Amino acid sequence: MPKVSGVLLDLSGVVFSGDDAIAGSLAAIDDLRSHNIPLCFVTNTTSAPLRGLLEKLQAIGVAASREDIFTPAVAACRLVKERGLTPHLLVHPNLLEDFDAPAAGTPDAVIVGDAGAAFTFEALNEAFRAIDGGAEFIALACNRTFRDGKGDLSLDAGPFVKALEFATRREALLVGKPATAFYADAVAHLGTPPAETVMIGDDVESDVEGALQAGLRGLLVRTGKYRQGDEGLIDPPPSAVVADLREGVDWILAGGR
């Protein structure tokens, strides 16, 4: 078993739930840092800007900088810049600050994230018409569900992305988890070999299966959106299933045992 040189950590459901740190998570992060194991927070959350995520981490007691967080919005902004695109944004209003103001002109790309209450018929139909008319179709994430601030499961961006794919007969370019390119960018950002990098998350598809397909190891925690039996939904199975981040870090420090 290769040594662990780096760790990618999901946020909601792994490090915190709502506005509170999950028990043991802060000490677990401190242990990784005390053993000089670099980590990067990777999240498919597309309803909060990078600034908000950073403020939340700092509020619960995690020392972090903007460079410690990698999000689909970061990846999408890079893509827009590289391709010289003028995007139409169907995203949560809070996320708009992570994108530069679109240049004047007709949008040639549609970017879809978790728009929440902004997923109206009018907004979805406008996005449909742009994509159907030839605009590039970019999805920040395709998660099925997330746990809201009350702890209840809610629809995430995935069902709306799939609806647009069905209507347009077009497949979205996914720039968030579980896209292999997202994991490749996150690992490059971290600076560790994929085979020596572990992803810890509560979503068996986006976090664990995506990481395994990208050549990383994937740990599934039984916190957050985890449901009994999730580990049996993917093949190959998770590298390990652990109670929480504390147990996941113990697994790492014990050499993956």
Please specify the SSE layout and strand pairing.
Blueprint: E1 6-9, E2 16-17, E3 20-21, H1 25-34, E4 39-42, H2 50-60, E5 69-70, H3 72-83, E6 87-90, E7 109-112, H4 121-132, E8 136-139, E9 145-147, E10 153-155, H5 158-168, E11 173-174, H6 180-190, E12 197-201, H7 204-213, E13 217-221, E14 240-242, H8 245-253
Helix pairs in contact: 1-8, 4-5
Structure description:
This protein has 2 domains: 6-44 and 178-253, HAD superfamily/HAD-like (Rossmann fold); 84-174, 3-Layer(aba) Sandwich (Rossmann fold). The chain contains 8 helices and 14 strands. It has helices at residues 25-34, 50-60, 72-83, 121-132, 158-168, 180-190, 204-213, 245-253, and strands at 6-9, 16-17, 20-21, 39-42, 69-70, 87-90, 109-112, 136-139, 145-147, 153-155, 173-174, 197-201, 217-221, 240-242. A 6-stranded parallel sheet has the order 5-4-1-12-13-14, sandwiched between helices. A 4-stranded parallel sheet has the order 6-7-8-11, covered by helices on one side. Helix 1 (25-34) packs parallel to helix 8 (245-253) and helix 4 (121-132) crosses helix 5. It starts with 5 loop residues before the first strand and ends with a helix.
Question: What key attributes describe this structure?
Answer:
globular, about 35% helix, Rossmann fold, about 260 residues, 2 domains, alpha/beta, about 20% strand, six-stranded parallel β-sheet
The percent range for helix content is: 25-40%
User: Mind telling me which CATH architecture of the largest domain this is?
Assistant: 3-Layer(aba) Sandwich
CATH homologous superfamily classification of the largest domain: HAD superfamily/HAD-like
Indicate the mean pLDDT.
Answer: 93
Which CATH class of the largest domain is shown? Alpha Beta
What is the number of strand segments? 14
- What CATH calls the topology of the largest domain is Rossmann fold
Summarize the helix and strand pattern as letters.
EEEHEHEHEEHEEEHEHEHEEH
- Uncertain segments: none
| Count of helix runs | 8
Work out the strand percent: 15-25%
